[in-house]
Amino acid sequence: MSLISIENVHKHYGDYHALRDINLEVGQGEFFSLLGPSGCGKTTLLRTIAGFEDVSSGQVRIGGASMIGVPANQRPTNMVFQSYAIFPHMSVAENVGFGLRKSSLSGAEKATAVGEALEMVGLNGFGARAAHALSGGQRQRVALARALILKPKVLLLDEPLSALDKKMREQMQSELRRLQRQVGITFILVTHDQEEALIMSDRIAVMFDGKIAQLDPPPQLYTRPANRQVAEFIGVMTFLPGNRRADTLEVAGLGHVTLSPDQIIGAEGDVRVGLRPESMTILFDDMAAEPSNRVAQGTVEDLAYYGDMTMYEVRLAGAPRPVTVSMRNLPGRPVLARGDAARVVWDPAALMAFGPVD
Amino acid sequence: MLRAYVIVFLLFLYAPILLLPVFAFNSGTVIAFPLDGFTLHWFAELAVTKALHEAVVNSLIIAAVTAVISTALGVAAARAGVRYRFPGKAAALGLIMVPLVLPEIIVAVSLLVVVVQIMGWDLSMGTIIAAHVLICTPFATAILNASFQNLDPSLEEAAVDLGESRSSTFRLITLPLIMPGIIAALLISFTISLDEFIIAFFLSGSEPTLPVYIWSMLRFPRLIPVVMALGTILVVLSVLLLTLAEISRRRGLRRAGVKDKGGFL
Questions:
Q1: Residue-level pLDDT at A326
Q2: CA nearest to B179 within chain A
Q3: Rounded mean pLDDT of chain B?
Q4: For residue A276, what pLDDT is reported?
Q5: B251: which chain A residues are within 8 Å (Cβ-Cβ)?
Q6: pLDDT reported for residue A42
Q7: Domain assignment of residue B21, yes or no
Q8: Which EC main class describes this enzyme (chain A) (predicted)?
Q9: Beta-strand (E) ranges in A55-139?
């Protein structure tokens, strides 16, 4: 049985429909993410689970028990806030031990629990520090320790890494993953960063306009997007105009393609043809094209050099706009310049046709 | 040029006040230069004037009660204004602030009409307190608005999330973090009430406040140096209270780790 189940949940703020018929289940010990652009309802959904917002209709269950009408302070959830919400007038230990105030533990037992929680997040010996003297990463860890000390059934994380710089964010991503495996608590993460969601989650619900557009593990989300909006949001995808009749696709710059059923999303007619950067290759002298692949002639319009790889914007002959092609910078392989001719190898089985209505 | 302007402006502002202590310590009974000699006689006279002591006690009681009520109302108004959205909010908060710009004489006359003519009550310290609450609440609300705006709403939610009730959250989180604002609001309301004259003059019955008592002393030229001595003490006390309020506000900012965006003073 799933730990959290959300059934037909709607949330209205006056005329604004913030959540539209949300249905999802999260399993025990799962790392689950709510992903979407700002204003898509992901934080509202998280707050209905925490008990800070009530639902307009529908059901929220945790461990089988209905949470409707149960206030936040009586739910088996704890939350890490976007601002971390560290109590500025308390020490680190007072912050971490705050949730134990009402517990029946003795003073010594509480101190031990606080020490263990601080150790778990790598803040040994920080207990006596003043909370306002901490760095961003340290505040994040205090917030985690404070939420985990109560051993909640579910830990809710509201954009917990968005305030950190890139290096610190990457470090905390792997640390959060490790921590989640270690404590075995279900984590629900809200993020607008698709890369972060892909790296950390067991499953991801992608949300737009208060609705769940797709709910899948990261690989399915990336390779089998439910619609163009999801495909555009997850990873990089460039689009060329095309026209589809049944399984026959005509693409500007690429010619005729016969599609397999799982390459077809939405209705036929004028479609947008989606291409992932890694599904195409620029043919250098050291390479031979796969026999199933096809080659198109193009010109490099722009490029971004990342060190380990280069992202090329290549305009194929007959195409109205360039496509993005990623190439690894192997030793001995040249980096092309703007205006260079490029032969682009592409796999007809890797493109996706998104219908006008999807 | 600017420097000269500032100096003239400050002189204009403070020179009359600086004259108070000069004549308070002058032994002549006429307020004029040249000065006669140094004396503490006027201060000594203050110490034995019983009517004055009663006025001081009245004023202190009125100011203290006014400060507590205004600050409590200010906390409620500021919290509602910063945290909640409700119909008519802008109008309600605007009307709370109106007494800031309303001429006090209007407030005084209309309250006098209401209290005496319509309600038929006797004038008392209670009527002065009610009127002073009216004019002090906007100040308290303005100060506490800033306190609540600096308070991250997630802090209160985090406390609830960790198992506290709404009331214990207010006690453990909200109150300590807005305490500097509360102290500042108390001190400023107290100061405003203490030296308010017009309303107190209209609404005081047989229990004059200190400013009303001072005004009545001015009818006797012999007592003017005594008024000067009293004024000196009041100026020192007022400056002291306002300084305390500002110190308390700055300490609060430091404690919350917020940058100073300019305060009441």
A1: 93
A2: A89
A3: 86
A4: 93
A5: none
A6: 94
A7: no
A8: hydrolase
A9: 57-62, 65-66, 77-80
